[in-house]
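QA checklist item 7 of 12: single-chain prediction sanity check.
[x] sequence parsed
[x] length recorded as 207
[x] structure emitted
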Amino acid sequence: MDFVKLIELFITSITSIVIALIGAGFFRRMSEKKQKNKSKESLMQQIKNDEIVHLSIREIRRRYNADRIYIWQFHNGGNFYTNAPMQKMSITYERNSDGLERKADKFQNNLVSHYNTYIKDIIDMNMFYSNIEDMTDLGLRSVALSMGTKSHVSVPIYDKLGNLVAMLSMDWVFSEIPSDLLKKDGNFTQDFKDELSKDSDTLDNYL
């Protein structure tokens, strides 16, 4: 092979490498841009969902004349030494009457194991206390009273596969429970329990 052909072959090889590098950079930039747009779209969708949830729970609170309404969501929060995931829950959404202390500021990353009784009663649709003094769990009752809660209800929120993903809770602090929500004995009616359960079902799509 003469010297000229050798130079031509070298130039061709270098050109191919440069084109390949430019192409790779182009596709990388396109991929990054696409990923960035996807991330932006995901963020915008989350903001839209958050607005829907906040508006929804605000309307639910007003409908039942409650002072505080909030959503607990379950999540992982690290791992134990055994590598088993820590199951935790946090208040992620909350709407309150004016001047009322927010629970979400205090209840973040709580171990699920601390609330076993509470969660079980919610699943069984037994977390309906028109008088918080009737709450049998002394620890939960003490926490509720420290927040000024006089009445409390909570219902489960399931995903489409039937998994418990969150809980919808309401407190009455200084407002009166509407009389049509109560039976003659002072306990909540079954109709109210069913209505609140339906309200919780509508929230699953946006959590």
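[x] summary fact logged: The CA atoms of residues 25 and 124 lie 57 Å apart.
[ ] second reviewer sign-off
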